[in-house]
Amino acid sequence: MFFIGIFGIESKEKKIKELPNFFCKGCNKEETGQLIKTYNYFHIFFVPVLKWNENYYVLCNYCSTVYEIAKEKGKRLERGEGENITYWDLKEIKKTNGVRICKNCNSQVEDRFVYCPYCGNRLE
Ligand SMILES: [Zn+2]
Ligand SMILES: [Zn+2]
User: Fold this and answer.
1) Is 72 helix (H, G, I), strand (E, B) or coil?
2) What tens digit of pLDDT does each residue of 3-24 get?
3) Which of 58, 60, 20 is nearest to 38 (CA)?
4) How far is CA 109 from CA 56, 66, 80, 121, in A?
5) Could you tell me if residue 34 is inside a domain?
6) pLDDT digit string (tens) for 24-55?
7) Does residue 49 form part of some domain?
8) Which of 3, 61, 109, 122 is the most exposed place for a label (fewest CB within 10 A)?
9) Ligand that lies nearest to the alpha carbon of residue 94, given by its number in the listed order
């Protein structure tokens, strides 16, 4: 059929920027990190036309702990409105060195991944 592969829904994980100094709860000191945004999008001819389900995360470069931050805060950081991430913004969602099982492909996946590295399934 003609329309197969022309449009669809994808989920994406995108690195927004480096964070030169944020206070990592896991390290208990300032570390460099990365601001990461995840979203689903609908595309036509591989051009994204609609985005939703945006979430922002901070990944510590040193200890690989992942924190969730508020969407509004993430948007302001993405636009570079000069805000810093504070201790209170970070909601720890994953402990390091843990292992979980991907429900989709049953692989053992390190806890720090938001998406399964084997099949791309979002890990709950
Ligand atoms: Zn850390
Ligand atoms: Zn998987």
Assistant:
1) helix
2) 556 777 788 889 999 999 899 9
3) 58
4) 21, 15, 33, 11
5) yes
6) 988 999 999 999 999 988 888 778 888 888 99
7) yes
8) 3
9) 1
CA of 99 to the centre of ligand 2 (A): 13
| Structural domain boundaries, residue 54 | 7-97
Task: State the virtual CA torsion across 60, 64, 70, 76 in degrees, nearest 10.
Answer: 40
- Closest ligand, as measured to the CA of 112: 1
Nearest ligand to the CA of 115 is 2
Torsion of Cα atoms, 20 then 21 then 25 then 27, to 10° = 80
Residue with tokens 């979430």: 55
Signed CA dihedral, 63, 32, 69, 74: sign only: negative
pTM listed for this prediction: 0.66
Residue 1 lies in a domain: no
Which residues are near ligand 2, the ion (C-beta closer than 5 Å)?
Answer: 102, 104-105, 107, 116, 118-119, 121
Contact 40, 9 (CB under 8 A): yes
Q: Which of 35-44, 65-74, 94-103 has the least mean pLDDT?
A: 94-103
